[in-house]
Design a protein that fits this description.
By secondary structure, the chain is α/β, with parallel strands linked by helices. The protein has two domains: 3-139, Ferritin; 145-358, Alpha-Beta Barrel (TIM Barrel), CATH 3.20.20. Helix content is 57%, strand content 12%. Helix 6 (158-170) packs parallel to helix 7 (187-203) and helix 12 (313-319) packs across helix 13.
């Protein structure tokens, strides 16, 4: 085989291997996606096997010191991880395409690798999409942390809704959650309201979370969609909702939380359901709540409905909760902006104190 052909194969094997290692590490350490990481590792091993088949001729053909393209500066700055994934996926795809075509030459047909290299290339197309979507969802999960203000649409006049949302987003809340249903409001009017609310949230980088109402979610594309139960399969929701929409589910018991995690939910919202009729009942409910958070927070993002009890925010953070939902009706209407700022400050201060106590990781 001509040494220059081997040089092309060697250069592209190196290009593919380097790109695969970057994608594999993103899948393993940043997204923590075991399936994608395993697939990328398998493709990388497949390429390494090709090196062994052509060794030592491949190594002997290398002339890095005299390569006329070695000094070309084609460095591209990646502004974020999704762009880095895209660049390295393209690098891998192009390198595999070159190897695939060269493998059809008479001198290399004996290797019988062209078809398998083609399959690997198509796998990278799919994996690029998977990694990119999961990175975008991870970005939303970072913004998901903090204080969420819940607005029950059933308890508010339509004309007051946008002004309430405007005050909430100006006060430092991380998310506005809409639940319930506006009375006597036609669907097209509701969509107009949702459009205005989405714009208000976007101006302050505040998440919009819609509870149930899948028909509205399909049109307005909220940042997060939270279900009361798992009656609709998550995979169907993934196909219907915007690709980077977080999907959550309410959970009152450990069984509900386990089912949610098994079905690839992005987060769970724990409704504490504390029995306030007796001291012992309240104590048992609180223990159950902390136990659930501690058990599942290492596997999935956990938000907690803290009702009107704001005193145990530090304990909930220590247990692993990342977000706290508060019904707007529980906050003083005359001073809702100031009260929200106090809550945001309490959460932020508690988080900083916990980090100081734990020290550097």
């Amino acid at each position: 085989m001509h040494p220059r052909i081997l040089r092309i194969i060697d250069a592209n094997i190196n290009r593919v291997s380097e790109g695969l290692r970057i994608l594999e590490d993103v899948a393993r350490f940043i997204i923590e996606d075991a399936n994608s990481s395993h697939q990328l590792k398998s493709i990388r091993h497949q390429i390494n096997h090709l090196i062994h088949k052509l060794s030592p001729e491949l190594i002997f053909s290398r002339q890095a010191d005299s390569d006329i393209g070695a000094n070309f500066d084609v460095t591209v700055k990646h502004d974020d991880l999704p762009l880095m994934v895209k660049a390295n996926a393209k690098r891998v795809q192009e390198g595999l395409r070159v190897i695939e075509e060269l493998a059809k030459l008479p001198d290399l047909k004996y290797l019988r690798i062209s078809a398998s290299i083609k399959n690997a290339r198509y796998s990278i197309y799919t994996l690029e999409k998977t990694l990119t979507i999961k990175l975008l969802r991870k970005d939303i999960l970072e913004r998901f942390k903090g204080l969420h203000i819940v607005i029950n649409l059933h308890n508010i006049e339509p004309r007051n809704l946008t002004s309430l949302v405007a005050e909430i987003v100006q006060s430092g809340a991380n998310a506005v959650e809409l639940t319930g249903e506006l009375s006597a409001v036609k669907k097209h009017a509701m969509l107009d309201l949702l459009d205005d609310i989405k714009k208000l949230c976007a101006q302050k980088n505040v998440l919009l979370i819609l509870h149930d109402h899948l028909d509205l979610a399909l049109i307005c594309h909220p940042d997060c969609f939270c279900m009361e139960d798992l009656s609709t399969p998550v995979q169907i929701l993934r196909q219907q909702l915007h690709y980077n929409t977080l999907i959550g589910c309410q959970a009152r018991t450990s069984l509900q939380a386990r089912k949610a995690i098994q079905r690839d939910i992005d987060y769970i919202l724990i409704d504490r359901g504390i029995d306030t009729q007796s001291i012992s009942g309240k104590s048992q409910s609180r223990k159950h709540l902390y136990s659930m958070i501690t058990q599942y927070s290492s596997r999935i993002a956990v938000a907690v409905n803290i009702d009107a009890d704001f005193t145990d925010i530090p304990d909930l953070l220590i247990a692993g909760a990342v977000a706290f939902t508060v019904d707007s009706s529980l906050i003083l209407e005359d001073n809702i902006g100031t009260e929200i700022k106090k809550l945001v400050g309490k959460i932020e201060t508690s988080g900083k104190n916990i980090q100081k106590t734990r020290g550097p990781i």
